[in-house]
Amino acid sequence: MEDLAASVKNLRKKYREIFKISAEEIQKRIDEIKPDGAGDIFDNYPANSPGMLWQKSVLKMFDEDICREIFRKWNEILAYRKEFSCIGCGTCCRLACSEFSSDELKIKAQHGDNFANQFLSVFIPYNSKEEAREIYPEYIEMLEKNKEDKVYFYHCPKINDCCRCTDYNNRPQICRDFPDNPLTLLPESCGFAPWKREVEPIALMLHSMLEIIEYYKEHINANFDRT
Ligand code: SF4
Ligand code: SF4
Predict the structure, then answer these.
(1) What ligand 2 atom has the least distance to the C-alpha of 191?
(2) Same domain, residue pair 147 and 204
(3) What is the pLDDT of residues 164-180, one digit of tens each?
(4) What's the domain count of the chain?
(5) Spatial separation of the C-alpha atoms in residues 162 and 90, rounded to whole Å
(6) pLDDT of residue 148
(7) Structural domain span for residue 71
(8) Any atom of ligand 2 within 6 Å of the Cβ of 125
(9) Are 96 and 180 in a shared domain?
(10) What pTM did the predictor assign?
(11) 156 lines ligand 2 (CB under 6 A)
């Protein structure tokens, strides 16, 4: 069976391919509404010129058409997740990762970051990476192979030695919703792994489209600010 590092590498390769296809599709949609004589979508057009009206139409198309469709599909993916269930292996309770240290998360929480707040209400940091390695060695090995150093490891003190949550009925939303994104790395044994495998291609496509749209919006709006 493919190891975790290889599957992450494959996922990145797949993402690059999907990203290219999404970029071509979006550019096609933009070109379909391009007025005669207009240049590039990122050009700096005079106020109320056909070029600027085109840029505004493109932003409207992103918000009212493409993004709505992306969110509709994303919600379908999340709704489909309900067909799968947790098998209680306890891995996600015993090992949670963040690119932020506990102190950084505290600052984020103080500034109103709801995820940071919930995360800190559940997880406490491991003292060392070696402790985390005992829980999910393949994951730590994959991080090391990819030289991803800035990862902090956490665990929940409410999981018992039988991998059962000792406060199950009061578990917070962050636990009930996990995994809320099919692009999250999951252990092969996770009850949601088949869901992830099934919806991953479409999730990658939606993610790439959002990333591309964000880029277009940022650069078109930067032109408006200069006009
Ligand atoms: S509160 Fe329960 S479900 Fe949530 S991480 Fe802790 S042990 Fe797991
Ligand atoms: S890793 Fe998956 S199966 Fe295991 S406890 Fe978490 S959600 Fe449940």
Answers:
(1) 3
(2) no
(3) 999 999 999 999 999 99
(4) 2
(5) 9
(6) 65
(7) 4-83+199-226
(8) no
(9) yes
(10) 0.83
(11) no
